Amino acid sequence: MPIYTMQNPAALPRLSNESRDHDGGSRTVLWHVAWPQGELSIQRYRNVHATFLKRSLPMCSTQGTAKPTILIENERVRVTEWRFSKRGDNTGWHRHEYDYVVVPLFTGTLEINVGDKFPVLAEMVNGVPYYREIGVEHDVINGNDFECAFVEIELLEDREP
């Protein structure tokens, strides 16, 4: 039985590249692997690659186990450090009321529960930020065997038209 690794994604069996609409964008399944323990799907959605690990997630609540520490809060921004002490710690289900930037303080993986049965695996690189717009709903879960943290910067002012 061949072993597929992320170091050699070209070796993964390809599915047909059929796109389907999803929230106004197109999603293309690039690779899909099934084995007795689960399935792995690598997809491109709006030119962003995402890895979906098909294993069930427990239902999450709004009460998370990760520790938020507000570092700065004023009329323009709120800066919060989120600290996850162990694998499985989570933020709790929440909806972002503002645009925001996240700066990981580690290199590793976060599991993002977006309400589907299976998590999205997000690869983080220490110090490399990413931006998301208002309205994102999810639960962020530590997918590592070590403590990890990130800084979230919420942009509280409305955008100029």
Can you characterise this structure?
A hairpin with a 2-residue loop joins β1 and β2. This protein has an eight-stranded antiparallel β-sheet, with no helix packed on it. It folds into two domains: 9-54, no CATH class; 67-155, Jelly Rolls (Sandwich). The model is unreliable at 1-38, 43-49 and 51-61 (pLDDT under 50). 0% of the residues lie in helices and 50% in strands. It has 161 residues and is mostly beta strands. It has strands at 19-22, 25-35, 38-45, 48-54, 67-73, 77-84, 94-95, 99-104, 108-113, 120-124, 130-132, 137-142, 148-155.
Strand content: over 45%
**Basic shape:** globular
N-end to C-end Cα span: 56 Å
* Structural class based on helices, strands and sheet pairing: mainly beta
* Rg of Cα set: 17 Å
Poorly predicted parts: 1-38, 43-49, 51-61
Biggest sheet layout: 8 strands, antiparallel
CATH architecture of the largest domain: Sandwich
CATH homologous superfamily grouping of the largest domain: Jelly Rolls
Strand order of the largest sheet: 1-2-3-4-10-9-12-7
Q: Count the strands?
A: 13
Tell me the name of the CATH class of the largest domain. Answer: Mainly Beta
Number of helices: 0
The overall number of domains is: 2
Following the backbone from N to C, one meets helices and strands in this order, namely EEEEEEEEEEEEE
The residue fraction in helices comes out at: under 10%
Within the CATH hierarchy, at the fold level, what is the topology of the largest domain? Jelly Rolls
Report the mean per-residue pLDDT as an integer.
74
